[in-house]
Amino acid sequence: MNIGILGGGRVGGALAQSWKNAGHDVTISTRETIPETAASADVLLLAVPCTAAADVIAAAGDIDGRQGKGPFVYRFEAS
Length: 79
What we know:
By secondary structure, the protein is α/β, with parallel strands linked by helices. The protein has helices spanning 10-21, 34-40, 50-60, and strands at 2-6, 25-28, 43-49, 72-77. It starts with a strand and ends with a strand.
């Protein structure tokens, strides 16, 4: 499974490592690669502080029209 992580901090980085160890392909976005990460992933994880969530979701582009793609999973951290 191709997992995209929007946010590479402690939560995103730890989950990425766990999923890589389990054999998944994982991409962690940078601020510049959010749209590409969102478009190519089967499943997305939002792992950013809640104050950044709206901007990151907006930068991800059209995630509602992702036919054949997995769910968009929300995970908010307190800042």
